[in-house]
C-alpha cells in the first residue's frame, strides 16, 4: 500500500511565559533561578573581600569602607535576602525530591513560605546583627 | 509483552544490557551532577548560615580583629568547607541554566567553559586568601 501523503500543517506551539497566568509555584521557581544567578555573581564579592583581608590593612580598608557605606550595606542586605530565598527554595525542592508536598495546598503553602520566610529571616539576621553589636 | 521485557530485548532496543546496568546514560556521568547538587545543597544550608554569623561578627571591626577572626582554625575550616561546597553547587547550577537556555552548540560550549573557569577562579582565590590568613602570612 502506498503511503498516504500527510497534510503539512503548522505545528501548534506551546504558549510562552507571558501567556500563562502567574502562579506562586511558577513565580518561586523563576525566583530560584534568578537568586541562584545573583548568588553566583555575588561569590566574586566574597572572593574580593577575602583577598583584601589577605592583602593587608590598606586593601581591606577600601573593601570594608565600601561594604560599610550606604550602597554597600544595601547590597549586603539584598544579598542576605537572596541567600535566604535561595536556601528556602532549595529546601522546598528537597521536600519534593522526597515526594513530600505535591498536593495543591502544600505546594501553595511552601511557595508562600519561601517568600515570607526569606523576608522574615533576613529581618531577623539584620536585627540580631545590629542589636548584638 | 511487558514493557520491561521489551526494553531488555536487544532486538528491540539498541542499548546493551551492560550499558543499562552501568546506568550512566548518554553523558557517561549518570546522575553524578544531580546527586552532587543535592549533597552540596544540604551542606550549603549549614555552612552558609555559619558564614552569615561569621560575616555579621566581622562587620565594623578593625583589620587586626578581622584577621584574628578568620585566622581562628575553626573559622578557617568552616570558610574553606563553605567555599568548596558553594563553588561546586554554583558550577552545576549555572551549567543547568546554560544548557536550558543556550542552544547554539559553539556558544553553549564556550559558556560552559567560562562557567568552569569562573567557578575555579573564585574557589582558588578564596582558598588562597583563607589559607594565607590562617597561616599568618597577610602582607
TrEMBL record, chain A:
<keyword id="KW-0408">Iron</keyword>
<feature type="transmembrane region" description="Helical">
    <location>
        <begin position="30"/>
        <end position="53"/>
    </location>
</feature>
<protein>
    <recommendedName>
        <fullName>Succinate dehydrogenase cytochrome b556 subunit</fullName>
    </recommendedName>
</protein>
<comment type="similarity">
    <text>Belongs to the cytochrome b560 family.</text>
</comment>
<dbReference type="InterPro" id="IPR014314">
    <property type="entry name" value="Succ_DH_cytb556"/>
</dbReference>
<dbReference type="GO" id="GO:0006099">
    <property type="term" value="P:tricarboxylic acid cycle"/>
</dbReference>
<feature type="transmembrane region" description="Helical">
    <location>
        <begin position="113"/>
        <end position="132"/>
    </location>
</feature>
<dbReference type="Pfam" id="PF01127">
    <property type="entry name" value="Sdh_cyt"/>
</dbReference>
<dbReference type="InterPro" id="IPR018495">
    <property type="entry name" value="Succ_DH_cyt_bsu_CS"/>
</dbReference>
<dbReference type="GO" id="GO:0046872">
    <property type="term" value="F:metal ion binding"/>
</dbReference>
<comment type="function">
    <text>Membrane-anchoring subunit of succinate dehydrogenase (SDH).</text>
</comment>
<keyword id="KW-0349">Heme</keyword>
<feature type="transmembrane region" description="Helical">
    <location>
        <begin position="59"/>
        <end position="82"/>
    </location>
</feature>
<keyword id="KW-0812">Transmembrane</keyword>
<dbReference type="InterPro" id="IPR000701">
    <property type="entry name" value="SuccDH_FuR_B_TM-su"/>
</dbReference>
<comment type="subunit">
    <text>Part of an enzyme complex containing four subunits: a flavoprotein, an iron-sulfur protein, plus two membrane-anchoring proteins, SdhC and SdhD. The complex can form homotrimers.</text>
</comment>
<keyword id="KW-0472">Membrane</keyword>
<keyword id="KW-1133">Transmembrane helix</keyword>
<dbReference type="GO" id="GO:0016020">
    <property type="term" value="C:membrane"/>
</dbReference>
<dbReference type="InterPro" id="IPR034804">
    <property type="entry name" value="SQR/QFR_C/D"/>
</dbReference>
<dbReference type="GO" id="GO:0009055">
    <property type="term" value="F:electron transfer activity"/>
</dbReference>
<keyword id="KW-0479">Metal-binding</keyword>
TrEMBL record, chain B:
<keyword id="KW-0249">Electron transport</keyword>
<feature type="transmembrane region" description="Helical">
    <location>
        <begin position="109"/>
        <end position="131"/>
    </location>
</feature>
<dbReference type="GO" id="GO:0006099">
    <property type="term" value="P:tricarboxylic acid cycle"/>
</dbReference>
<keyword id="KW-0472">Membrane</keyword>
<dbReference type="GO" id="GO:0017004">
    <property type="term" value="P:cytochrome complex assembly"/>
</dbReference>
<comment type="pathway">
    <text>Carbohydrate metabolism; tricarboxylic acid cycle.</text>
</comment>
<keyword id="KW-0408">Iron</keyword>
<dbReference type="InterPro" id="IPR034804">
    <property type="entry name" value="SQR/QFR_C/D"/>
</dbReference>
<dbReference type="GO" id="GO:0009055">
    <property type="term" value="F:electron transfer activity"/>
</dbReference>
<keyword id="KW-0997">Cell inner membrane</keyword>
<comment type="function">
    <text>Membrane-anchoring subunit of succinate dehydrogenase (SDH).</text>
</comment>
<comment type="subunit">
    <text>Part of an enzyme complex containing four subunits: a flavoprotein, an iron-sulfur protein, plus two membrane-anchoring proteins, SdhC and SdhD.</text>
</comment>
<keyword id="KW-0479">Metal-binding</keyword>
<dbReference type="GO" id="GO:0005886">
    <property type="term" value="C:plasma membrane"/>
</dbReference>
<keyword id="KW-0812">Transmembrane</keyword>
<keyword id="KW-1003">Cell membrane</keyword>
<dbReference type="Pfam" id="PF01127">
    <property type="entry name" value="Sdh_cyt"/>
</dbReference>
<dbReference type="GO" id="GO:0046872">
    <property type="term" value="F:metal ion binding"/>
</dbReference>
<dbReference type="InterPro" id="IPR000701">
    <property type="entry name" value="SuccDH_FuR_B_TM-su"/>
</dbReference>
<keyword id="KW-0813">Transport</keyword>
<dbReference type="GO" id="GO:0020037">
    <property type="term" value="F:heme binding"/>
</dbReference>
<feature type="transmembrane region" description="Helical">
    <location>
        <begin position="41"/>
        <end position="60"/>
    </location>
</feature>
